[in-house]
Design brief:
By secondary structure, the chain is of the alpha+beta class. It has six helices and three strands; from the N terminus they run ααβααββαα. Helix content is 45%, strand content 11%. Strands 1-3-2 form a three-stranded antiparallel beta sheet.
Length: 123
């Protein structure tokens, strides 16, 4: 007897099957996991969801266990993925802030589901 998924459409993850060498651009799950990769990424996104626009120093102060190197890498990764927008003011000294894009704000329910599942709330 073949296994049938409960509550999912036929072929939901068909685009995600096969050997994984690099993220498959046709697999929505891999795209999402790629955007959230890295231990600190969900925590960084959580700060933006709580606070809105933040500077590098504000993020560093909020996430004290995070090294400057990793914070810089994650901000670049999230900006490149279209999740964060980097804003530079033309004043002196120049001020750089980051804010979630619409695509970034759309990750809120994903992060809430991860949080609930990790706490054991999901059934």
């Amino acid at each position: 007897m073949a296994h049938q998924g409960v509550g999912h459409g036929q072929g939901l993850l068909d685009a995600c099957s096969g050997p994984v060498v690099e993220p498959n651009p046709n697999c929505p799950v891999e795209i999402t996991l790629g955007a959230l990769r890295g231990r600190w990424t969900p925590l960084i996104l959580g700060e933006f969801l709580r606070s809105g626009e933040l500077s590098y120093s504000q993020l560093a102060a909020a996430l004290t266990g995070l090294s400057d190197k990793v914070l810089s890498e994650r901000l670049a990764q999230l900006t490149e993925a279209g999740i964060l927008e980097r804003r530079r003011t033309p004043a002196w000294p120049p001020r750089v802030t980051y804010a979630l894009t619409d695509r970034g704000r759309a990750l809120a329910p994903v992060l809430e589901a991860l949080w609930s599942w990790g706490r054991g709330d999901a059934t």
